[in-house]
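Researcher: Please translate sequence to structure tokens.
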Amino acid sequence: MNHRRSFSAAPNAATHSENTHKHCAFADRILEVALNLRKRGYSDSYLTTMVRALKCIAKHVNLDNPNEVLDYIARKKVMDSYKANLCDFYKHYADYHGIPFAKPKYRRDHKLPYIPTREELNIIISHASKKYALIYSIMMDTGIRPVEVSNIKLRDIDLEKGTINIYSAKHGSPRIVKVSSRTLAMLKEYVNKNIFDLNDRIFPNSGTISNTFERLRTSLAKKLKNPRLKRIRLYDFRHYYATTLYYETKDLLLVKEMLGHKNIRNTMVYTHLVKMDTEDKYYSATAKTVQEATKLIEQGFEYVTTFNDIMLFRKRK
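Model: Translation complete:
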């Protein structure tokens, strides 16, 4: 594997305030840090973001001078939470290269994530290529992280049961997730059209998945003249799944288990995102036989009651 490509480590043009340098002298030093962190278990998505941020800083100041770096970060017109992230990234660089650096105390504002509607996510899925439509559908059905998608191997998939074994990222809990019948059909087609060995990872790395999503989302927002789409992040497929699951079950422990969280405090954010609206509207449907009821359940309907030997179901619009 070419590690340099994984972290987009090709040299960049570096410009100080006097524009005297035309070549980024720090690309290799940044790459060394990224490769070291990868050995320690950091994900490719985190490392790609870190490399991009450090290379951006290196275009403006000397990375080996922490005072210049601190001044540059302090002057950036961004939120303090983002400045805190930049300091975290630079701390990795400074520690690896033996540069004394004390992180300033920027306040991290923990904002509630944006929860897109199912219709918005389906718009994105419908305009994606087959491979990426499958990836986004798996994320919407299961709430797994992008890095967990990228780690899926052929041996982790049971095409008969429609389940996937997930070996969690962020030191979370492993779990088995189930995809919808629609997603399973897409998955079967994808696997059958490609030649994979059992130990092959069948999807691109998380950095590629994220970058492809951002390009598609931005393009669609412009094409459809729908600026709301630009608010959607790749991680919002996970947030949509979690809030929907909690809304339907009110079972916080189940949500925790399905998301692979180790700490329930990370799961509790979804209790704040669910708004119980008494005016919620539903699609209704009826079934007279077990086969009809089974089909409705597979379509996402929930059983309500039985009246005059007819089973009543509903699904939130």
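Researcher: Any highlights?
Model: Confidence is low (pLDDT under 50) at residues 1-6, 8-23.
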